[in-house]
Amino acid sequence: MGILEAKNISLSINGNKILDNLDIDFWEGYVHAIVGPNGVGKTTLGNVIMGLEGYRDFEGDILLNGKSIKKLNVYERAKSGITMAWQEPARFEGLTVEKFIKAGAKDKSIEKVKDALKKVGMAPEVYMGRAVDKSLSGGERKKVELASILAIDPKIVILDEPDSGIDVASLENIFNAIRFLKENGATVILITHSLEVLKQSEHAFLLCCGTVLRRGNVEEIRQYFEDKCIPCDHKNKPEQNGVKL
To answer: How far apart are CA 105 and CA 109, in angstroms?
Structure first.
């Protein structure tokens, strides 16, 4: 039994079936990858696990340590130790980087903030007083969001496309942060279509049309994804109909 399980999840949005009897479980303390092309339901699954508004009306169940959390809202799930970093991080007008990182941290010391920023390759003296708004690039906001997660010391972390908007020079900082989370006992779930991000995982799930097509060895999943999925010309109807997956 995994620390987190999605049991027979089905979800339709605007008449489109996004997740189809999906069954998946994540082992405690491992770095997992959910991989697949755009439009197969990866982000939707993350949103369902997190309990976001608009993703609560699904069939099946979500179990944390064997107990259902289906009825818990996003805040209650966060209190249970689950957190998520989105592909497009939010902006917070007027909120400084320092205050943003402190908000969810148990240890609200300046040292904790500085340490978290350093771990994602951001100089504290440059960024602590900056606002988390449009003055920061998407990549900078993404690293600030990851720094805030490091400061939380979560049990389970879902990272949606963690390399999105990140320049090549900063990518290793993101990978180092993932390794740090694992070393500190977190279960990490990487949602990705990137082969480089996939390589950071220890166990992988390949999604197609809202269900798990394959699971297991990372190298086997990588090879199948590269040889079979990337060249595939299948177009998912939900994506064509304008539904963000």
So the answer is: 9
